Automatic annotation (TrEMBL):
TM segment ranges: none
Keyword terms, alphabetized: Autophagy, Coiled coil, Cytoplasmic vesicle, Lysosome, Metal-binding, Zinc, Zinc-finger
UniProt protein name: RUN and FYVE domain-containing protein 4
Listed GO MF terms: zinc ion binding
Localization per record: Cytoplasmic vesicle, Autophagosome; Lysosome
Protein's GO biological process: autophagy; cellular response to interleukin-4; positive regulation of transport; vacuole organization
Amino acid sequence: SYREQNLPVTDGSRELHSLCAQLEFLLQFDLKEKRNFFGQRKDYWDFLCQGLARRRQEHEGVRFVTSLDKLKTPVGRARAFLRYCLVHRQLAESLQLCLLDPQSLSEWYYARSPFLSPRRRAEILGSLYELDGITFHLALRRVDLDTAWPMFSEMNERLENIWVGGWMVWWMVRLGGGCRDGWSGGWMMSRWRDGWRDGQLWDGGIPTTAPAVPAPQGWAQSCLATLCVRARQDGERWASALQRAQREAMEREATRGEEQARQQELVRDMKGRLLELLREKDALWQKTEGIDLQMPSTAPRDVGLCARCHKDFRLLSRRYSCRLCQGKVCHTCSVDVGKQGRCCLLCYQQRHQQAT
């Protein structure tokens, strides 16, 4: 419609925001995560700079964007570059230079990126070349591109005092959506200011006397009502997006809590299993030493204490059964008697005295 009506696309055009957002989505979709020497994450701005540097020495858009010292983020610089290319009708040509090398595309994008498909890449470039027939009148030195794309509903309004034959009129100029019959507020204001002659609104136009001021006032009220409706729609849309983001955050928090509970339960199970394995290991070790827990013993003792030093047997403490008195003794209070096993020090001394 802009090409048919020979109208320029401005920052107040509704379609501009959709075009820029979709183009940025394509350039960021399935982009590999890369970092520079200082650990900062690279974005599609670095991909564009690298692709253009390989094909030509220096791109005018890159040189212009790097001169904008108020843009601090790679995303903001990339947005300024896309707007520059739209104004100078270089968007399709610049992107085609970046998409010529398949190896470079594989280094920057994963397999799901549409740029890795020759058919989809050709369709995208064909659509972008059609934009060369449309005129874009955009502000190239915007400082708010680091945060987001400029919204079509943004407006810059100003109140001016206009004295018309003793009438005081408060007039709004430079409204975001233009005004009725294709006249912009700024143009209308300049004609009204410069063209007042002998009670007429402007020379060479429709003669309008001073009492006819309510007509532009009614138009201003209609424009203001339209802007209020747009602002309310934007507010409802952003409120819905905020509620959706909050709901997703609550769902993620609930999922994180469930995952944490499962991990804690798994840790408890692992600790319990570890204790069981330690008990089984201790039982097997005692069996290898020939300890029979069911064998009766004539020596009065506490099964949890050493029969000689009365030391408390812990979970991993070594316990031996004396071959003579059947008492449970620790490693310190026992003596190895060879193939016959071990016996306590008291029985060993008595046996040694009998032998001598």
